[in-house]
UniProtKB/TrEMBL annotation:
It comes from Winogradskyella pacifica. Residues 2-171 form the N-acetyltransferase domain. The lineage of its organism: Bacteria, Pseudomonadati, Bacteroidota, Flavobacteriia, Flavobacteriales. The keyword Ribonucleoprotein applies. It comes from the Bacteria. Keywords: Ribonucleoprotein, Ribosomal protein. This is Ribosomal protein S18 acetylase RimI-like enzyme. Pfam families: Acetyltransf_1 (PF00583). GO terms for cellular component: ribosome.
Length: 171
């Protein structure tokens, strides 16, 4: 059984812990251990997550599988990208599943949920960035009809960035 619920600021600690684990699982080898740990501590701490709830364009959702937390997503409505000419578009800022829950179609369910939410808000498309070396994620988004629209350097630290694709799904 799959449940997707809207998160609120009270979920900040849970989201921070999920983000720390899932980012480490998916990107932990993309930079030095020190750079990754510092990025995680800076970006995925409870207070940083709690502050994001102040932005009314941001929505977090939690996905549960058989009543066990499996991952989360974060979208930002009305978030333009210089690589995309369309107006009124949504950024899929985060969609992370714990490794133990991958391969159960939960990513598809969470992505479809966010696309439907974006469409309901009269958005014209949804975009994201994905690490160029994360072929599993690139294949997933390509299968879901996203197309590469540009490039983006994802800053891990002052001395390290990871090359990313900007991928876009036009509605």
């Amino acid at each position: 059984m799959v449940d997707i619920i809207k998160a609120n600021a009270e979920h900040s600690d849970l989201i921070a812990k999920l983000a720390q684990q899932t980012f480490s699982e998916s990107h932990g080898h993309s930079a030095s251990k020190e750079d990754i740990n510092n990025f995680i501590l800076r970006t995925y701490n409870t207070e940083a997550i709690r502050k994001e709830f102040e932005n009314k364009q941001v929505d977090y959702h939690l996905i549960y599988f058989n009543k066990t937390i499996a991952g989360f997503s974060k979208i930002e409505l009305q978030c333009p990208n210089i690589n995309i000419n369309d107006k009124n578009i949504t950024k899929l800022d985060r969609i992370y599943l714990l490794e133990a829950f991958q391969g159960k179609q939960l990513g598809v369910k969470l992505l479809d949920f966010n696309i439907a939410l974006s469409k309901k808000q009269h958005q014209n498309g949804i975009w994201l960035v994905v690490w160029t070396e994360n072929q599993k994620a690139i294949n997933f988004y390509t299968k879901m009809c996203f197309e590469i629209a540009g490039a983006y350097d994802f800053k891990i630290s002052e001395t390290h960035t990871n090359p990313n694709h900007v991928m876009y799904l036009k509605y």
